[in-house]
Amino acid sequence: MKKKILVFSGAGVSAESGISTFRHSNGLWENHSIEDVASPEGWKRNPKLVLDFYNKRRAQLKDVQPNKAHEIIASLEDYFDVIVVTQNVDDLHERAGSTKVIHLHGELTKVRSINNLDSPIEWTEDLNIGDVCANGFQLRPHIVWFGEMLNEDFIHASRLAAESAEACVIVGTSLQVYPANEIPYFTRKDCPIFVIDPNASDLILSGNHSNIHILNTIASKGMSSVRDKLLAK
Hints:
The protein is of the alpha/beta class. The chain is built from eight helices and eleven strands. The chain is elongated, with a radius of gyration of 18 Å.
């Protein structure tokens, strides 16, 4: 039976592919206030602005490719039972070859109706005012905005993956977004945790885990090192 590995990823994994990280020191996301483009209130104020913002991000996906970090994570499936739990909304993990990916914060390549009752719809082109679901409701990005609840089924599945993990890799995340940031700490107290981020030493790591390994580096370099460590065990 293959050893179970949990990979918990954030924006730093996709940064090397040219996708801007969600948070910046100036409080803006692609020159927009997060409140304007990533909140229910922003959607109510100006849905066209929100749709245009995500249309640009969706279009950007066609111009970027998975990087070495994504590829290494996918390659771990050759040796381990790997579940990727990601805060990212891009599809680069899947395009690199990862087959078990849980998107906690939604997916750019899907949309859903504003009544939240219909299943998400695959969507790769622009989404505009007037695009509606089969029941006549306006479609919106399938993104979990600030102030919205995460999918309970995804949270449950992520926690189960953490509880059964025999090693955990936290890569490219500041661990600031609740409740997603709690997922890695559902692992057993003795589970080895590898934390990869240029500012990893500054992260506040919760829980009483005794087997934490800090790698202050970018995702691709850190994943290369962790892959070697995992294969050596």
